[in-house]
What we know:
mainly beta; two-stranded antiparallel ribbon
Amino acid sequence: MAQEYAIAAGYNNAGSLTVIESLTDGTNTFNTIALTAYSRGVARFRADGSRSFEGVGVVQWRSVMTWAQLEYLIDNYEGQVTVKTRLYRRDGAYANYNAILRLEPDIAFDRTTAGTVVWSFMLVEAL
């Protein structure tokens, strides 16, 4: 299955979505997204056994990049974005969403080498 992860700065900007592998910081192109995960928030169980979720849903991508690539993403995409992703890996269905992007480098990320970065998309809302 071809990767279809894409991103655009700003809300409601599906017409400007760019496939992740097509992004460049001027020197390097970005790697394929290695892993996706979705959390609906914190599960709360009621006395009758039913459950609900509190908090905000978060979609996470993980990929390896250079420090320059991370700075490029922070400067151009961190904050309000339109994103093409899937919520659950097993169904493979991609859709467009508005979200708030926060980029989180791994604690061991070194400016001189490539490192793992978690892309956290919060307040995910379908277009």
